[in-house]
Automatic annotation (TrEMBL):
Protein name as catalogued: MAPEG family protein
Pfam families: MAPEG (PF01124)
InterPro entries found in the cross-reference section: MAPEG-like_dom_sf, Membr-assoc_MAPEG
Annotated localization: Membrane
Lineage: Bacteria, Pseudomonadati, Pseudomonadota, Gammaproteobacteria, Nevskiales
Superkingdom to which the source organism belongs: Bacteria
GO cellular component: membrane
Membrane-crossing segments per the record: 6-24
Alphabetized UniProt keyword annotations: Membrane, Transmembrane, Transmembrane helix
Amino acid sequence: MGAIHALLGFAGWTLLMVLLVFSYRGFRLLTGTPINAWPRGSRPANESAFAIRAGDAHANCVENLVVFGVIVLSAQVLGRLDAIAPFAVWVLYARIGQSVAHLIGTNQFLVLIRATFWAAQLALMLRMLWQLFA
């Protein structure tokens, strides 16, 4: 898998995370929850723990997609995709691992796993930047 495919995979995964949130809210809407029950910046008191985690996992994806996208697209413009390709796919795998750990729960072990996957993504993206500047 090349860097562009990894970026597309990351974008697809981000869309999957928002679809989880959208599906949950759509179900709640169909079962009587008012459409304005989710004001921006706050969470209803009766929001399920899974829905909160799904929203947070989606937000994490969006935050990192921007940075990853800039690195990959810059490599494309510079004609240096080959320099980052070995690392890009691992960013995607670490992102998926982080999201899955986030969705499963928030016990101490899962938070450690999630943080480890996030640290791996940061290290890989820093390495990709290094490769582009080298």
